[in-house]
Structure formats: structure tokens, C-alpha cells
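Input for the complex:
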Amino acid sequence: KQEVTQIPAALSVPEGENLVLNCSFTDSAIYNLQWFRQDPGKGLTSLLLIQSSQREQTSGRLNASLDKSSGRSTLYIAASQPGDSATYLCAVSGNTPLVFGKGTRLSVIA
Amino acid sequence: GAGVSQSPSNKVTEKGKDVELRCDPISGHTALYWYRQSLGQGLEFLIYFQGNSAPDKSGLPSDRFSAERTGGSVSTLTIQRTQQEDSAVYLCASSPTDNEGYTFGSGTRLTVV
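Predicted:
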């Protein structure tokens, strides 16, 4: 059974810092990995999708990497801003629908 | 449509009543998913539809929960005889196929009083 773990559970950083969020999964037989953002009381917004054959994806200040063999992904956020404050969720898709981690709650302090 | 649409956005119901939650996926997306997010918990998979195949109901927590998808488009999640533990945000997602990225709706916040 696929299990997804995200570390840390919460993170507080000053504005302008670069930061890394970590995600690990137990079954490397995945189709893709997706990073989402969730603001309080809102739905999920897709940030980046990495197919199993890819190593990384970039969008603006965000960069996500995937090491399928070791079951790990990282989300790198450059020059963090208060507007980046949200919960970041990692999810993997394989023989089952998306399995989610419990998320990392990020606070960027101005 | 431009995105996944869910209705209602909020629903308050009395314990024991039945509720129906609606999801309108992105046009042309063959895969549709329902998830539940309870307060402080992660996202819990409920049910998955792919084209005309039989749905994967493996995540439904009890026989009070059911879902259907008519004409390969709109889906309805029904909860019968609601209980307080059913209070959660119910999220729907769709994807072009079953191994491409998901797009989520804004969810339905269900409160059972």
C-alpha cells in the first residue's frame, strides 16, 4: 500500500529565504507525482506535475525534483514571499488514484 | 467548463438526513475522483470513475456512501443517514486520463449537526 510522508509538518521562515519541502513515498511504481497548494478553507491548486520519466519540473520560483528509485521528491521555493503561506501537499499516482501526504504548513513572515 | 465545479459550496444538515453533493468535471476529462478532507486530516480517497468502466469504490467508508456518474460527465455523491463524523470537506477532481494530472474543485463543506 502506497504511503506518502511529508517533512516537516510545519515551517516558518522570514521573507526572502529559499526553502525546501520534502516528500517521500514507499512504492516507486508511480505514474506521476503532483505538488498542490491549499489555502485555508479552499480547494487544491496544482503547482507542478512530474511524470515518472522526468527528473524535475519548474514553474517560476518553484522547482520540483523526483527521484523515483529512492522514493523522494523535493519542492524548492526561491525567494519566499508572504503570499506563499499555505499548506503544500505532495501526491503520487500509480496503480491507485492519487495518494496524498498530510502536507507541510508554510508560513512566510514579512 | 473551465474548471471543476462543485455544488453546493456549503451544506448544513441534520443528523440522519440524506445529502447529495454534485461535481461537474472539466469537459472531456474521462477520470473523476471523490476525496474527503476531515478537519486536521489528510485527503482520503473515496471513489474513482474512469470512462465506462465499473467505478473503484474501495475508499467508501460505509454503505451509507454511494456515487454515480451519469453520461460520463456529472457525478453525484450521496450520503444517507448522515452522522456527525461525516462532517468534512468533500473534494472532487478530474483528469484527462487516469495517469495525468488532477484538477480539483473548490469542494463542498458538509456540516452535520
